[in-house]
Design goal:
about 65% helix; about 400 residues; mainly alpha; about 0% strand
Length: about 400
């Protein structure tokens, strides 16, 4: 695959597939046609890249979709209706100014309330953000076959019900906002998991800063929107300190606050203040408070706020009790009550999908190492490394494992 094709496939696949789906009202056909276009581009772009790779892919995919429809019509001995006048991608999906960001418009389009709530964010992450089924399954702590079935059912629902892929107006936003925020949550988390920002989804980190700012302008009284905008800014502010000059991840407690982006922290506090003014308690609000607590730290000489972090996690469990929340709480518990208590909490988690969740093995390995259980710690580090973390995380895990020898 050429570098131009690789970039176009990752950056533009969502809007191209969504535009094809709007054109033909068939998600499977849209995805298949886009795959055809990418395959043709491998040879067609061998000598020179097109001036507009996204437009090239859309047009070739559109022709492929029409060819598939014609072949289908011949097989069914049906007459293919005359095609409508060809609209452009922009006319189909991006002409309306009511939602001023391209990817955000597509997220709203795909988070249709007729789709089952469990599938909305997953389908959007697949179509708009280009995450693989495996990556989405890991984010939801589901098995890959279970997640794949959800996606299949959602596509069938869209096809069977003739769901429109129109950009929704403000009256439709309340029915979609939770799925929209869940999609942004996971897309940003996927980028945030790459400390050095060198992976294929690294661009989502900065992109979600812009998207959350636009959402906050669109919905200035929506508490969870404000909380998510604050969280993304607090988390992204710490990025300069998240890896060493030679590209190794630095754990949060070891990061130098002097390297953090104070402008982003100030923006995060502004959004957090607006959230608090709403007088609501929510899981997203408590997550924002967790990040805000860390961003109060002024230097490495300032003690890490583990007790405050544990208190906030205790409150979070009352509104979001899931394995990932409990895993993160265990990290704080280890610092407050010791590794024995934390390891007991982790080993009592009953979520088979954690076996494919790299942070689970990394946290467990660290606790085992602290308790002097070197062989078990090595095995846990090996399990984390087998899940193919990003480069900075891999180097850190390898360095920790090396200490066990």
């Amino acid at each position: 695959m050429t570098s131009a094709l690789d970039r176009a496939a990752r950056a533009d696949s969502g809007r191209i597939i969504a535009a094809l789906a709007a054109r033909f009202r068939d998600l499977d056909l849209a995805e298949d046609a886009f795959a055809d276009a990418c395959l043709k581009a491998v040879s067609a772009w061998e000598d020179a890249d097109p001036h507009d790779p996204a437009a090239w892919l859309y047009r070739v995919a559109e022709r492929s979709a029409l060819d598939r429809l014609r072949r289908r019509a011949v097989r069914e001995r049906a007459t293919l209706p005359e095609p409508e006048p060809e609209p452009t991608v922009e006319e189909l999906m991006m002409a309306t100014p009511i939602i001023p960001d391209e990817r955000l418009r597509l997220i709203f389009v795909c988070c249709h309330p007729a789709i089952h709530p469990d599938a909305r964010a997953a389908l959007t992450l697949r179509l708009v953000c280009g995450l693989t089924t495996e990556e989405i399954a890991q984010a939801f702590l589901l098995s890959e076959p279970t997640l794949a079935q959800r996606l299949v059912r959602a596509k069938r629902k869209i096809a069977g019900a003739g769901i429109s892929f129109d950009v929704p107006g403000p009256d439709a936003w309340p029915d979609r906002i939770d799925a929209v925020l869940s999609t942004i949550d996971i897309a940003y988390a996927r980028a945030h998991a790459d400390a050095a920002g060198t992976g294929v989804y690294a661009g989502y980190a900065r992109e979600m800063l812009g998207i959350t700012a636009i959402l906050a302008e669109m919905l200035p009284r929506e508490a969870d929107v404000l909380a998510l905008a604050a969280t993304v800014r607090f988390a992204e502010a710490r990025r300069p300190a998240r890896f060493t000059p030679d590209g190794m991840m630095v754990p949060l407690a070891d990061q130098d606050p002097a390297l953090w982006d104070t402008t982003l922290i100030a923006d995060g506090r502004r959004y957090l203040s607006l959230f608090l003014a709403q007088g609501r308690t929510s899981a997203r609000g408590l997550v924002a408070l967790l990040h805000a607590e860390w961003c109060l730290r002024k230097s490495l000489a300032t003690p890490a706020p583990w007790r405050a972090i544990l208190t906030i996690y205790d409150a979070l469990l009352l509104v979001r009790d899931d394995p990932i929340t409990r895993l993160n709480r265990a990290v704080a518990l280890a610092e407050v009550a010791g590794p024995v208590a934390a390891l007991k909490e982790i080993d009592e988690l009953h979520a088979p999908a954690l076996a494919a969740f790299q942070p689970f093995h990394a946290v467990r390995a660290d606790l085992l190492a602290r308790l002097g259980m070197r062989a078990a710690a090595r095995a846990a580090y090996d399990a984390a490394l087998a899940l193919k973390p990003e480069a900075a995380e891999r180097r850190w895990l390898e360095s920790r494992r090396e200490r066990m020898n």
